Amino acid sequence: MKNLTFKQLRYFEALARHGHFRRAAEACGISQPALSMQIKEMEEEVGMELFERGARQVRLTGFGEEFAPRIREILRSVDELGDIARASRDRLVGRLRIGVIPTVAPYLLPSLLGNLGRLHKGLDVHVRETQTPRLIQELEEGRLDTAIVALPVSEAALTEITLFTENFVLVRPGADAGKPVPEPEAVREMRLLLLEEGHCFREQALSFCNMDMRTPPRDVLDASSLSTLVQMVDAGIGVTLIPEMAVAVETRSASVSVARFKDPEPSRTIGMVWRRTSPLASQLLQISEVVRRSIGALRDQHDGQRARDNVPGQ
Amino acid sequence: MKNLTFKQLRYFEALARHGHFRRAAEACGISQPALSMQIKEMEEEVGMELFERGARQVRLTGFGEEFAPRIREILRSVDELGDIARASRDRLVGRLRIGVIPTVAPYLLPSLLGNLGRLHKGLDVHVRETQTPRLIQELEEGRLDTAIVALPVSEAALTEITLFTENFVLVRPGADAGKPVPEPEAVREMRLLLLEEGHCFREQALSFCNMDMRTPPRDVLDASSLSTLVQMVDAGIGVTLIPEMAVAVETRSASVSVARFKDPEPSRTIGMVWRRTSPLASQLLQISEVVRRSIGALRDQHDGQRARDNVPGQ
DNA sequence: TCGTTGCGATAAGATCCTCTTATGAAAAAC
DNA sequence: GTTTTTCATAAGAGGATCTTATCGCAACGA
């Protein structure tokens, strides 16, 4: 049964339908002898006669009739493969496994998932939220299709594209609202609250204050989310830095003040990365556009809120 | 999608399983470039990349993963075709449509169907009981596989084999039991009860009495079954002829007498016919053996009963 | 950083398969 | 009895598929 071919199945089906070699051959677009040979070969392959050649008509044998519905079913399945392929040709479809770092996920995802669902119906999005090193590892193992992280990643096996750059802002207790913005070095002397180890944002914040990773600030509090940090500031425990993106969400229900730094403002660049070999490259570029659009929407929203709250703009 | 081949599907499956071209090729018994080419061709056919070629590993794309289970299902179905063929190779299997004339069916079928069911489990027997011309027509149209009729049929398109020959016996009212057996011509003068037009047995009986079909006997009664004929005789309405085969069943509950004719006894030959082109020929020969065995069992039963009832033997 | 190694892609030629046209044989139709 | 219809067979052309040899690329090790 190893040498059965699709052609033979199609020819079988045509012959069963027409009951006539010449007409069936015509329907298949081949000559009558070609069909005779293929049917014969198929019968040899199967080891049973499939058709009864009468003087005036060709009929399925009882055995052939057992084959016919199964063969039709197989041909249908194969045609369906074609349908699926055709349907997915230019459309982004199937599973998309996307990783996002925790300091981006809660702000970006609601908007992004909404847009993806609207723009790419039939796309099955899986989200993984964890820290950069694990995302990169899973990406390289093929367990993720892409990741949204802070650049640069600098992995030879990965392609990275920039999505946007955002500044960090200082979050202080509401009472500090009017005070001058401290110099980076001055922040070192304040009670600076930071995320726990492993978050790239922690390193970025430390780096801005010119702090070495081996000489941590006086009193660190290892929070697991920006939300916790802001709540801590609100409780008067200290100050913290958060990315602009998080301002709208995190300061909404807290009486804290937000202050921009003087130039050069601290910032981070968020980008998308994927395996250089990924065949999804072109689709991922499409996705990156959707991400930018989602960010844009967030920014507008943020700006609107900033105006209402009288938060210093840039 | 018209040029997909089974080979490609098998190669796809192997590559998906091994995640490695060389090993997959080895598993398929071909060289690595051959596999590369077929996969590439398949991808072109589909219009999508199915595998992601990484530096160190080969993985299914998300799209490929949608294909994989379907392809496995198709391969499974094809293998099943092989299984079915192998299982049916030497065994008589599937549907067997058998036609039987009404003057044989009620006596032969109980035993025959029992034997067929016992000897060929999995054989799906369909029985059609009607008169010879219709059986022959349905046979030639391919709506029956074989028919059991009185020979000869003399159709060029049909093969016929003899199953057995049986005599006709005279059935008279029980009161006539001791009377001498009449000459054939004498029967003509008796009130001879016959089957309705169309039954071959009617013609055979008439022929025995040297009656032309255009000069029917004085008082015909067109019965639709031998059973009816015997009941009529039992009621004293006349006499009839029935084949030996029917004696045991039909005279069991009637007080009629059965008499053999003097040589040459009237008789008929029952045989099996099928299309000369039927691929079932060899299986039908097997079937014919089962029929003979069934007839033999009937005869023995009949002989036993004849001995008990003191019916004249031959 | 530079060979080395492993892997898949590509190239060129041999082989096998499948198709076509031409023809044969058998049965049916006229 | 001749013609027609139909499927099978034969022989050769063309195409598909395989093999061996080789390339290019990336990862790995010294």
UniProtKB/TrEMBL annotation, chains A, B:
Alphabetically ordered keywords of this record: Activator, DNA-binding, Transcription, Transcription regulation
UniProt KW Transcription regulation keyword: yes
Alphabetical list of PANTHER family matching this protein: HYDROGEN PEROXIDE-INDUCIBLE GENES ACTIVATOR, TRANSCRIPTIONAL DUAL REGULATOR HCAR-RELATED
Residues in HTH lysR-type domain copies: 4-61
Family: Belongs to the LysR transcriptional regulatory family.
Species annotation: Ancylobacter oerskovii
Cited InterPro entries: LysR_HTH_N (IPR000847), LysR_subst-bd (IPR005119), WH-like_DNA-bd_sf (IPR036388), WH_DNA-bd_sf (IPR036390)
Pfam families associated with the record: HTH_1, LysR_substrate
Annotated protein name in UniProt: Hydrogen peroxide-inducible genes activator
